[in-house]
Amino acid sequence: MEPIEPMEPVEPPRALSHIQSLPSWLAGRVAERGRSLVAEAIAGEGLKLPQHAVLAAVSEYGPVAQADLVRRLGFDAKDVVLLLNHLEEVGLAVRGPGPHDRRKNAVRVTPAGVRILERCAERVERANAELLAPLGTEERRQLTELLSRVLSPRP
């Protein structure tokens, strides 16, 4: 029997380091941190992220039919109903006859809803400033431009 020669030590692959250096991983982590900061900021106004999104959509598109909200937001219809129920209960949105077809309900933002959206906008701006604090003004502008290009690639 021949003697077995010792094997040279093999360096394990740096798979985790590789994954953590990928733009997709980094963007996901930054997005997670940003969502967390924004969620914490709007929680100070008593809203959760989906409630804020629905209220913002109602404000921007309203008066709007619930079905249109579902399409525009890409949320499940049942979830939108529950979110609207909450917004209506706390006086931030109201359902009523639609302006073009009174047989169909439309959702509108209330004056209280407008005020809370204004306060949330300020809070969200501060949260994003905290997220981007390590960057200078020009770097922030450039990052925003680059992220927009990545999301909307040109043909």
Model description:
By secondary structure, the protein is mostly helical. The protein is built from seven helices and two strands, in the order αααααββαα. It has helices at 15-20, 23-43, 49-61, 66-73, 77-89, 111-131, 137-151; strands at 93-97, 105-109. α2 packs across α6, α3 crosses α5 and α3 crosses α6.
Please state the overall shape, judged from the principal axes of the Cα atoms.
Answer: elongated
**Number of helical runs?**
7
Note the beta-strand portion: 5-15%
Mean pLDDT: 92
Q: Mind describing the biggest β-sheet?
A: 2 strands, antiparallel
Q: How far is the first residue's CA from the last residue's CA?
A: 66 Å
Q: Record the strand order, biggest sheet.
A: 1-2
Number of strands: 2
Gyration radius, rounded: 24 Å
- The low-pLDDT segments are none
Describe this structure in a few short sentences.
The chain is mostly helical and 155 residues long. The protein is 63% helix and 6% strand. It is built from seven helices and two strands.
Features:
two-stranded antiparallel sheet, 155 residues, 63% helix, mainly alpha, elongated
Could you give the topology of this structure?
Elements: H1 15-20, H2 23-43, H3 49-61, H4 66-73, H5 77-89, E1 93-97, E2 105-109, H6 111-131, H7 137-151
Helix pairs in contact: 2-6, 3-5, 3-6
